Amino acid sequence: xxxxxxxxxxxxxxxxxxxxxxxxxxxxxxxxxxxxxxxxxxxxxxxxxxxxxxxxxxxxxxxxxxxxxxxxxxxxxxxxxxxxxxxxxxxxxxxxxxxxxxxxxxxxxxxxxxxxxxxxxxxxxxxxxxxxxxxxxxxxxxxxxxxxxxxxxxxxxxxxxxxxxxxxxxxxxxxxxxxxxxxxxxxxxxxxxxxxxxxxxxxxxxxxxxxxxxxxxxxxxxxxxxxxxxxxxxxxxxxxxxxxxxxxxxxxxxxxxxxxxxxxxxxxxxxxxxxxxxxxxxxxxxxxxxxxxxxxxxxxxxxxxxxxxxxxxxxxxxxxxxxxxxxxxxxxxxxxxxxxxxxxxxxxxxxxxxxxxxxxxxxxxxxxxxxxxxxxxxxxxxxxxxxxxxxxxxxxxxxxxxxxxxxxxxxxxxxxxxxxxxxxxxxxxxxxxxxxxxxxxxxxxxxxxxxxxxxxxxxxxxxxxxxxxxxxxxxxxxxxxxxxxxxxxxxxxxxxxxxxxxxxxxxxxxxxxxxx
Length: 516
What we know:
The protein is an alpha/beta fold and 516 residues long. It contains 15 helices and 16 strands.
């Protein structure tokens, strides 16, 4: 009997030693391979518009390919749902209050540590091509060619280390061309880290000429919350981002656009302007004039036009992602190149009657995130754990075999995609600042768990909101203060304070302590 116990103990020890050895071998294999890493970062691309996430609005076969051959993250979230701050979080692995970039149209402090510099120091070539939108020239990159500010869809100006050049063509195609040029010229003796910063799908949604009218044969159903009354939600009631009142016919939807004075069209060559004029003036504007819609019919027409322009703009984005994946295949780079696709945050596709982002609510909090890592991530993997964009930097460093600095606030989620069991966050923290312009969204902070979302709006009007996502996934019923949720509120406020302290958000903690 004792001998049998010894045998069992030996078998147990052998199995665990083998598992440990396999783990060590996998780790050393990753380090030996030193993967190339491409991070494709789009702007305002909603997960609701990506077929890998179950979208019925459009097909995105190339983004879907990354998900199918790697991992799809179903709870990828952002710390501050706005363009520039999201990029600052990518670079630093820190919340906005720690990296100093809380609002758009400021100057990012490039004196602070950014993770691409660590990659450089550890033998990586680094490059950023496309949209940057941080008000200062990139640091930590061996090469950059970035759009000027928000950039232009047609004939954009691109800033390099030595000059600024206007390149004729459509921005998404140009970014892909510059990316392939850099890949062709790189030092092949070194691994590389490359950010492809896409302008698409940012407002005012100008499609590539070949994609004009690509969705005109479709009728899109209104989201269930399109006619949201905002009852019990003061901040939602007072925003200025509705398709009804905020979306502009002339600029956003190009109805009787000013082709002589509008700076967007002044960049066009005659050859580019003609198909735009023919489509928007001779077709769409005439349709608008003929219909003479008012009231609910006009709002519905605006919604349809918004989606058709937005999705047509996204069509080029997906097509160019496919071209980049094909480039990797043709040049023997696929097997040792990590490819990540993400947006800087989520976006509203008519939910709650809105476009834009900013709120902690689901459609703007969640961002698409798919990741392919051949030999490491099992194809078809789905990650349902809560990840945040503070995790992007340490994850990339982890894949490169570089230790993340102690002050980075995110955590590598590489173990999650490798299928290892690790302790992981059950809740995430959020803090948005920009007010009142451009969309009059009150500043707020909050906590999101698997079931609940608790948010405190502050500034001109203080209020609390609580949503039970199990019963109300569309976040239309604020149950803060209702019977049966008192203990939930107490628990969530305690967790919220803990997260504020964990991430050193002292400003928010002071506001939390002050009763609204």
